[in-house]
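User: Last request for today: this protein with tryptophan, please.
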Amino acid sequence: MRILSGIQPSGQLHIGNYFGMMQTMIAQMESSELYVFLVDLHALTSVRERDRLARGTLEAAADFLALGLDPDKCIFWVQSDVPEVCELTWVLSTIAPMGLIERCHSYKDKIAKGLSASHGLFSYPVLMAADILLYQAERVPVGKDQKQHLEVARDLAIKFNNEYGETFTVPEPAIDENTAIVPGIDGQKMSKSYGNTIPIFLEGKELKKRVMAIETDATPVEAPKDPERCNLYKILKLFASAERMAEIHRLYVEGGAAYGYLKLELLDLLNDKFGEARRRKSELLADPASLRAILGRGRDKARAKATVTLDLVRDRVGLKY
Ligand code: ADP
Ligand code: TRP
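Assistant: Here's the final one, the structure of the complex with tryptophan:
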């Protein structure tokens, strides 16, 4: 199975990214042909500071490796290092119906959040389709928020295949319903752009501050509470064992759940889960030349695949004369 997914290096990666995508990808390293990449061209639609984007890309690379991604067991690269994706984006954009792209809600959501309305932001789903189709991906693990973009990629693959002959694999989304949307500390979807995240690599006081800031209601400790309506409960569920969650569930339903204590418990669980990865990340960042070399090897492997597809596409549409 050929599995592919990308992540924007546009800010600190958080536990929503981890459970929505990174963990799933890392777990499939042994059993699949795995493609993992950092979508810096997509990040350019929201990050206009040179250093933030460049540093963010190296940091995100370190994040993946620190969390256990083995670059020898997958293809791991930076999107812009394979320029073929831009040419495929153009070809796809010539068959992409305006209505299909206009219906994508993430554009409207991002404008509503204050991002500037650029053509790049609007055509974001076409670049994402090119990412997926260029490597003939079969499955794409993403969070629920990306489902519509996956549908665009499928529609464009089908349309191209119908018009020009069988060329692209039609990709399937892989969405884990249990962790489909990790809530942020304010209860909205956790997202880099909403300032409501728990970053994977945050430590010490900063992390504690973030955890203590998880919004909860004002119900007294002894009062029964509805666990399914509580952010803290939903986040704890990602980290605590099934046995402990059964106890916590009882405390919510019968009364006795003290938010302050549960937050400290979550803090310990976060430190246990990510402590080792944090140490590895510092080591990786201390040697940027080696990080770049890893990404360079990934680029070569990715490019070798990309050129095969693009060559076929050029031939199919008449760009080979
Ligand atoms: P962000 O919204 O923080 O900018 P991205 O859009 O870069 O995150 O998403 C990267 C990956 O992480 C995607 O597969 C996305 O679906 C997943 N993801 C992001 N936020 C969440 C979340 N809160 N819950 C589950 N998955 C998420
Ligand atoms: N749009 C995705 C996100 O914000 C990132 C992304 C870009 C992606 N290209 C991709 C994800 C290709 C999967 C496959 O999360």
